[in-house]
Specification:
4 strands; single chain; globular; four-stranded parallel sheet; alpha/beta; 215 residues
């Protein structure tokens, strides 16, 4: 704070950064309009976003709800061992509770999602906006990555694959209204990266995925 030429951005509590993430919603809206994809209550937009501390998915969710209102349903995907945003929202304690408080270890191979305590700002901003959340096992990430690539998809980090489990989770939801979302609308799986993963690491990820798929 003493140096006027420096500005610290707290990725858990920065409102400016949160709003920056929300700009992605406007870009997506433009892309959908360009492709002439209708978004309405009858033809909803269903978005699955991998979630760590909550800043980026929270900002995107906030932006999407402001762009599409009740016509969009956003679901966060988290590791079973580190569902910090799910815990924060479900308990109402936001960043005053960690997954360790519930006996979870917070350990996962989902790089970027291994977070034990949620962003308080995220929980505050999306508490009444996010449609829900679901968790995924590490093995499901690697198996989904292999299946995704085998079927023509590009490589992405295993953590991104958490979003791919969305439809399967929704189909088994206790709410018939939520389950019905899998039969209609436009579904978007948010992928956050993977271009910089070394080739040898990619090969190891795929080998693990192949062994899981072949079981």
């Amino acid at each position: 704070d003493a140096d006027p030429h420096c500005h610290f951005v707290d990725d858990e509590a920065s409102e400016t950064l949160f709003l920056g993430y929300s700009a992605a919603a406007k870009e997506l809206q433009g892309q959908l309009e360009e492709m002439q994809i209708d978004v309405s209550r009858e033809n909803p937009l269903v978005v699955y976003i991998p979630c760590g501390v909550g800043g980026a998915p929270g900002g995107v969710c906030w932006g999407l709800k402001h762009c599409f209102g009740d016509a969009v349903h956003v679901f966060f995907a988290e590791p079973t061992h580190a569902p910090c945003v799910t815990v924060g929202l479900a308990s109402g304690l936001h960043d005053s509770i960690s997954v360790q408080d519930l006996g979870l270890d917070g350990k996962t191979e989902a790089d970027g999602l291994a977070v034990s305590r949620a962003s308080g700002l995220c929980c505050k901003m999306v508490g009444g906006l996010v449609a829900g959340s679901f968790t995924v096992e590490d093995d499901e990430l690697f198996a989904s990555l292999e299946q995704f690539i085998t079927n023509g998809g590009r490589f992405m980090e295993p953590s991104c694959c958490a979003a791919l489990l969305g439809p399967a989770r929704l189909r088994t939801a206790s709410s018939s209204e939520v389950a019905s979302l899998t039969e209609r609308g436009t579904h978007i799986f948010w992928a956050t990266g993977g271009a910089l993963v070394p080739e040898e690491v990619r090969a190891a990820y795929r080998a693990k995925g192949q062994s899981l798929v072949s079981r």
